[in-house]
Each structure stands twice: as C-alpha cells, then as structure tokens.
C-alpha cells in the first residue's frame, strides 16, 4: 500500500525553468482566450519542437492576473480539433461559469466560442484549465495561472509563479504520448510524465539577491504526479494553501507535498551565499534534484527580515455549525491491488473484470463515474460534513468545485481552507464546508486518469 510514509520514502527528483506571460484582464472588456494547437520548444534544444494544445498557443497559457474584486471576462475561442471548456480552479465563482462540460455547460465545439464572466472575491493563487476530456486536454498543455492580487501588496522583493508539470513525451520524437486512456495509468497511479518542467521550461533559473524575500506561487498542473518539494538555500514560510491565506504563516516543513490541482504560496528568504545557487528541490527516490534554481548574483544590502505578517484573510473563511451539519460519506474503491468486486456502471452492476473490460476502474460508494442524483443535496448556508475513506491502494487528490473546505482533524480541530485533499491508501478523513455557493458542483480525483475511469461525482447546493 502506498501510505504517506512509503510515499515520502520512495519519492524521487528533477528540474525546469520558465517565463511568465503576463496579461491583464481589462475591467469591462472581454479579452480573447484562444485554445489552439501550437508547436513549441518543450524538450531541450537537441530535440525538435513538441506539438501542444495551449491557450494563446502558449505553455503555460497566458497568466491571468487581476485585483481582488475584479471580474474575469474572457471569450474562449476553440480552435482545437476537440470540444473544450475552461474551469477556473480555486475560484468560488458562479456555477454557470464553472466550466465543467456536461454539468455546468455544454462543451464548446471546434470553431465556437463561449464568454466567461465572473467576479473574483478572493485573493489567491489559482489556475485555469480545460475541463472536457481533461485527462487528455490538460496533458496536452491547456492550463495557465490565475492570480488574484491582495489589495495591500505584501512585503516581498520578487514574485515568481511556478507552474509544475510532468509531460509524457516520446523519447525519440519529443511528441506527447497520445495514449490518454492507457489502462495502466487509469488503474494505477495515473498518467505520469517522463519530462518534468516548470512553466514549460527545463531547468528554470531565477537570479536572486542574498537576503531578499521571494514570494513563490507553486501550482501543480500535472495529471497525476505528487511533487515532494524541499528548499535549499532558502528559508521561509507557507503563507497560503490552495489560494487561501493561513491565519499564521507556517515555517516550511522539510518536505512539502503538492498534489495535482493544489497550490502553495511561500515567502522565502535567500540564505545562500553569492556565487551559490538556492534551489526548490524535487525529491524522488530519496534524492533531491533542482526543480528551480535561484543563483545568488549579488550580496545585496539588506539584512534578513523577520517573520512575515499573514496575508489578509479572504471573506467567508469560517466553517461553523459542525454539530448540526448534514453528514455524508464517500467510500473510494477500485484500482489495481484494490478490493472492488463489483460496481454499478451506467445503471448496471458489473464485476470488476467487466469494469476492466470497459476501461473503468474506480467507484465512489459503489458507483462508477457520474450519477443521475448527486452525492448529497445541501440547503444554501448549510454546513456539510463529508467523511472520505480511501479504500484503495493509491493516493488520490480529491477536488471540490465551488467551495473550499476544512479538514475535520482527529480530535475535532479544523485544518486550513483547501480545495483539494490529498488522501493516501487506507486513510479515513473528513472534510467540512459551508454550502454557501448554489449550484451543481463536481467532486473528483484530480489524478485525471482516475477521474476519467470512475472517480467523479457531484453535489448540489440548493439556491
Ligand atoms: Cu482542477 Cu474539476 O478541476
Ligand atoms: Cu485518484
């Protein structure tokens, strides 16, 4: 079984670089967001270009950056050979703008467009990505950062948005492996890449000055890889998780886990000496490799700062009323080395062997994939407690759309606000959230091959 401990012990390491493409959504005017096929230099220069699908033909897509309270107003133009949609991961937006093809909107056909328009009430590090045939479309490159700035800029010298991904490339041709529904990926740990990048660049390097404070906005856009990250020559604090500020910055632990879909905001001070390089390290197989290098180019003139003040809180962060909450349960089962004997697929009970033949592997509460009726129906404003039992041999990153939740920890304390919960084999966990955003919201594993082979459900918040 892949427990948290086992996972940390066996995780291994790598690196990349990136340039962020900045663009500002002008208030009151729609800007285009074109999804199209493009050749880009993804692999090292000794390889040719790789055909990707990207927003604006870029990889990652253009950074969307706005002030808290502004509106995102973007017209998606679909110039892909497939229908698509855009989901704004981490934004507590209007349900009609959530971008889930088949649930909140129809997929936008090739050649068609769709206007997205919603206000962002929370500051934070979020991202946007395709939400139709996501296991394929995200793997092909359809994602970008969505950054909402606090009204008071925090006291840092430099900010870097770091979008981490692993690409599964043909080692001869550097083309993206087109087997997006491969059985092994679906039934095991998901589609894992062989080429790890940051902002689409191999060996990303960001020059820094000694003692300066960096804000690093980490986003995991990979289909399945859980990044295990460490710092070297950098010291600091986690100031936000999944876009939501922590009430008290937490010193960076030795290992940080960043599951697919999750974000971490760090404030880190450069403690490496001039001539050295600090690193964000990726740990695999017990050894670290540079994910991002921070060469120290100048001694600078400043002394290290003290403990940072917390980021300003976003609205509606409290989760209350746990005693009288609506309670529900989610049993996750299936996959390789699991104990699922049979489950309901499209209304029919099927043996696991039959499910395998249908290239489906996972069930929530005995049902494979989306159901007619939601996992739960909550009244607007109701508190919901959802127990989640990972009865599988693999970790899963469960993502709730539309609302952030807090984990109900053993003993009853509440964890930080998050939108994606990483759960390991055999774990019994519980989350709680305020059902304060009306609509139909997806709840699925962000290991996208898992979502595609059964791990997807939804819940309803009545208007
Ligand atoms: Cu980041 Cu349902 O998605
Ligand atoms: Cu999963």
Explain what the structure shows.
This protein starts with a helix and ends with a strand. It has 5 helices and 34 strands. Helices cover 6% and strands 45% of the residues. The strands form 7 sheets. Strands 11-10-14-19-16-17 form a 6-stranded mixed beta sheet, with no helix packed on it. Strands 12, 13, 15, 18, 20 and 21 form a 6-stranded mixed beta sheet that branches. With 463 residues, it is mainly beta. The protein is globular, with a radius of gyration of 21 Å. The model is unreliable at 10-27 (pLDDT under 50). The protein has 3 domains: 21-149, Sandwich (Immunoglobulin-like), CATH 2.60.40.420; 158-298, Cupredoxins -  blue copper proteins (Immunoglobulin-like, Sandwich), CATH 2.60.40.420; 326-462, Immunoglobulin-like. The site of copper (II) ion has 5 residues, from loops.
Give the name of the CATH architecture of the largest domain. Answer: Sandwich
By CATH, the topology of the largest domain is Immunoglobulin-like
Structural category:
mainly beta
Beta-strand residue percentage:
35-45%
The CATH homologous superfamily of the largest domain is named Cupredoxins -  blue copper proteins
Compute the separation of the termini in Å.
42 Å
Number of domains: 3
Provide the residue-averaged pLDDT: 94
- The total count of helices amounts to 5
Q: State the total count of DSSP E strands.
A: 34
Poorly predicted runs of 5 or more residues: 10-27
Bound molecules: CU-O-CU linkage, copper (II) ion
The Rg value, from CA coordinates, equals 21 Å
What can be said about the biggest beta sheet? 6 strands, mixed
Gross morphology: globular
CATH class of the largest domain: Mainly Beta
Order of strands across the main sheet: 11-10-14-19-16-17
**Helical residues, percent:** under 10%
């Amino acid at each position: 079984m892949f427990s948290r401990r086992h996972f940390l012990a066996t995780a291994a390491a790598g690196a990349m670089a990136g340039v962020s493409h900045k663009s500002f959504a002008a208030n009151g005017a729609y800007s285009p967001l074109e999804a199209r096929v493009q050749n880009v230099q993804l692999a090292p220069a000794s390889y040719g270009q790789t055909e990707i699908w990207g927003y604006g033909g870029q990889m990652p897509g253009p950074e969307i950056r706005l002030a808290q309270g502004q509106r995102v107003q973007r017209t998606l133009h679909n110039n892909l050979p497939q229908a698509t949609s855009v989901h704004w991961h981490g934004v507590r937006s209007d349900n009609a703008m959530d971008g889930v093809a088949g649930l909140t909107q129809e997929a936008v056909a090739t050649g068609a467009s769709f206007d997205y328009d919603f206000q962002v009430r929370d500051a934070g590090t979020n991202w946007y990505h395709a939400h139709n045939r996501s296991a394929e479309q995200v793997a092909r490159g359809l994602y970008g950062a969505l950054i909402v700035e606090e009204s008071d800029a925090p006291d840092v010298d430099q900010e870097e948005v770091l979008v981490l991904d692993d690409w599964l490339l043909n080692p001869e041709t550097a083309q993206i492996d087109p087997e997006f529904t491969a059985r092994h990926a679906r039934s095991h740990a998901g589609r894992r890449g062989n080429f790890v990048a940051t902002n689409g660049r191999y060996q990303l390097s960001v020059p820094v000055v000694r003692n300066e404070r960096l804000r690093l906005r980490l986003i995991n856009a990979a289909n399945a890889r859980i990044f295990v990250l460490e710092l070297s020559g950098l010291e600091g604090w986690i100031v936000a998780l999944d876009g939501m500020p922590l009430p008290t910055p937490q010193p960076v632990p030795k290992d940080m886990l960043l599951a697919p879909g999750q974000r971490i905001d760090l404030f880190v001070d450069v403690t490496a000496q001039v001539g050295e390089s600090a690193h964000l390290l990726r740990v695999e197989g017990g050894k670290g490799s540079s994910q991002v290098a921070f060469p120290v180019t100048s001694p600078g003139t400043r002394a290290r700062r003290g403990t940072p003040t917390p980021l300003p809180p976003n609205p509606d962060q409290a989760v209350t009323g746990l005693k009288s909450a609506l309670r529900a349960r989610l049993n996750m089962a299936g996959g390789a080395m699991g104990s699922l004997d049979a489950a309901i697929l499209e209304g029919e009970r099927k043996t696991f062997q039959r499910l395998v033949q249908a290239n489906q592997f996972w069930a929530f509460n005995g049902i494979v994939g989306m159901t007619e009726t939601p996992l739960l129906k909550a009244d607007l404003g109701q508190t919901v407690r959802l127990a989640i039992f990972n009865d599988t041999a693999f970790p899963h990153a469960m993502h709730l759309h539309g609302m952030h939740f807090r984990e109900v920890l053993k003993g009853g304390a509440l964890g930080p606000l998050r939108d994606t919960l990483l759960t390991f084999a055999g774990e019994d966990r519980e989350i709680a959230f305020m059902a304060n955003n009306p609509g139909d919201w997806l709840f699925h594993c962000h290991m996208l091959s898992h979502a595609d082979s059964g791990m997807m459900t939804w819940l309803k918040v009545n208007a």
